[in-house]
Amino acid sequence: MNIRILLVLFLCCTVLLRSQSEDEKQLKAIYDMALTNGKAYDWLNYLSNQIGGRLSGSVQAQEAVEYTKRQMDVLGLDRVWLQPVMVPKWVRGTPEFAYIETKPGITTNVPICALGGSVATPDGGLKAKVVEVQSIEDLERLGREKIQGKLVFFNRPMDATIIRTFRAYSGCVFQRYGGAAAAAKYGALGVIVRSLSLKLDDYPHTGSMSYGDTPVEDRIPAAAISTNAAELLSTTLKLNPDIKFYFRQNCKQFPDVESYNVIGEIRGSEFPNEIMIVGGHLDSWDLGDGAHDDGAGVVQSMDVLRLIKASGYRPKRTIRAVLFMNEENGLRGANKYAEVAKAKKENHVFALESDAGGFTPRGFSLDCSDENFKQVEGWKTLFEPYLIHLFVRGGSGADVGPLKGENVVLAGLRPDSQRYFDHHHAATDTFQYVNKRELELGAATMASLVYLMDKYGIIQPKNIKG
Amino acid sequence: MNIRILLVLFLCCTVLLRSQSEDEKQLKAIYDMALTNGKAYDWLNYLSNQIGGRLSGSVQAQEAVEYTKRQMDVLGLDRVWLQPVMVPKWVRGTPEFAYIETKPGITTNVPICALGGSVATPDGGLKAKVVEVQSIEDLERLGREKIQGKLVFFNRPMDATIIRTFRAYSGCVFQRYGGAAAAAKYGALGVIVRSLSLKLDDYPHTGSMSYGDTPVEDRIPAAAISTNAAELLSTTLKLNPDIKFYFRQNCKQFPDVESYNVIGEIRGSEFPNEIMIVGGHLDSWDLGDGAHDDGAGVVQSMDVLRLIKASGYRPKRTIRAVLFMNEENGLRGANKYAEVAKAKKENHVFALESDAGGFTPRGFSLDCSDENFKQVEGWKTLFEPYLIHLFVRGGSGADVGPLKGENVVLAGLRPDSQRYFDHHHAATDTFQYVNKRELELGAATMASLVYLMDKYGIIQPKNIKG
Prior knowledge:
The structure is a homodimer. Chain A is built from 14 helices and 16 strands. Chain A starts with a helix and ends with a helix.
């Protein structure tokens, strides 16, 4: 072999190895810092325990905007700002109340909660017979004859055999989101929906619902019932289909109010117009304190900027932490962010969301071209020491979704999902169920991907074509 | 190409594919059953909440022996029996008490607990100045002059930057196990050991300690102090090295008592003399209810037999669930099991232990020949759908250790380890911190490896040589 070819090969290998080893060092520095000097857990403690549930339009949501802005202000970023956005304001009102009536006067109280966006029951509540279904097809099969004047009880359980629990959730969420609109078409008086949880317990799980094109006068109240109570109701119905169910809720939709996305930015040193974002959503449901959904994603995103800065790495591209408002019941913040980005012709090349809980990170789901997927997968060995092994194609997250376009890599952090739906949208989504190390490992994993994306640049399909 | 060669190739591929697909189905059946009809969680509930902490020689340990035997009796196994073994009986006595005295009469109470096997303090307790160290070398450096008549405070924290937390534990456990023996050589009056936990909280973590060859009259009391209190003590010492520490404990070692390993067996249909075991330890520390350490391993091992049977698979080799007694402070059960196996010339080919908590399983550590490691690693893709990705060489577990020999594959289930040391040996090792699905996934993962090991047989190095 020609000695010059050998030399070139040798040099290539050296450069490659040095780069690999530099990356290894940089990732180690990021993980070490997150695990020994992370700020995510302290921030989350404040968000959860000093502020609490942060439903869009609430005082707590506004406090969270102010708190996170203040915290980012002192991180020494290049810019921190609030992006105004009008959000819906739905208020739960006084605690809901429900019981199963097996005979007149013989009742068993059961835990329910109004679904987000639902209308109230009449003041005195609503009592009617119940028809149990597991699907929209069931409604069709039963028809108006068997549904009119009754409550529809959607009782499709999440499939426990599905390992990645978000998929089991996807198979059931139609009940919560569209159940009321579908049942109203057949003359139902209201809907009771089995909580979307794999755990049998006494906590109802709320979540957004929509009436779609149902006229205002035809909208019926919708509530979630705990999984234990759903089992009880189903068994009771099997014994006697004529039992009645009573529930009362006085939730209310108010006019939209102004709120904000909170954005912090480190300006890129070489390609400031190429924008990379990390994000989570600042709003949460009101039953718990929203520690996992999505306080975790918020504080991890903030810590990504801090870790990148503290590691001494100077990003070439602009990196933003975007704390979206109103993911839970409107996605207004995400849509506003994308709308402004489009109007300003901002070039977003990468968007990474953390909205699957603050559990041990397992990897990433990626919504991008084949080339981009291969690029990220090529970094797999760098992540191995941190037990990050999952690089899959799939949805990234609701908040970064509106940025989808030809030249942007959308990504979602994928933590271990076994415990997520025990807490999701329930009173048990609280700080005590977040483990400090698991949260910090998530932040470090996100920061590491941001670092690699920035250092190597995102393969642009348009460049490949061109 | 010769048509006959083609045909043979085609047949080989078909067999291989069918076998792969059979294995996929079998694993799916095992996981599905564990997740929808697992018994592990119910058994653990009883062990934890009806029986509680199961320290060797305690009434609870005996109750656990009887309960697990009863449960295995009804599984329709070929044989269930108790294997007698003498175990140490150490009793904590009345709750320990400790304070930091900054000035005479100015005290702050701190949470401590006696280490397992420690002697008591004098009846009135022990008060002395404190010297803080992080290693045995520190003792040497300080010498008798600075240690005699004082309490030695071992304050080496677990290294938070180590991702696999058992490694961080290994780097610190000498303080607990051998600290008292080492400090006694320099005339210390007692030792206080920082709890082996990565979490800052108020729970002391107990664990076994040994006086080694220290003469009885020279043995000094040893206690663990919570991590928060360790930080407080350290800071206080920096402000004033002359402060005193008081502690009182009246734990006591009694004569050995008889206890049992509990063993259940499915007899192999083809090679009954080849024995494969799955196991965990039935005893636990006394502060919590031992749900993670190692109630989880016990119920998972029991469920492995049940899952294998219920899946309809008929094992060729004999499979045993062995619930070892006295792992925590003596390893007598494990030694007895190995001793009996040797005496009976039993041929153990595979031993899998679960003793790292009931968390989401990540994979296995294997202590075996290169050939055997490659064999197991070859099944990696079968485990991928269940997010099992970690196949590493390393320690298997204390209880299967005594079986180590030329022809046996020793394995340990490796669950996610981030939360383990928050609970390990502390009052917080309780049932509420075990997630049902995570526990069940562990049982299914163990059963799957047992199935594959049984179906394909263990490559025997002696056979390779011969």
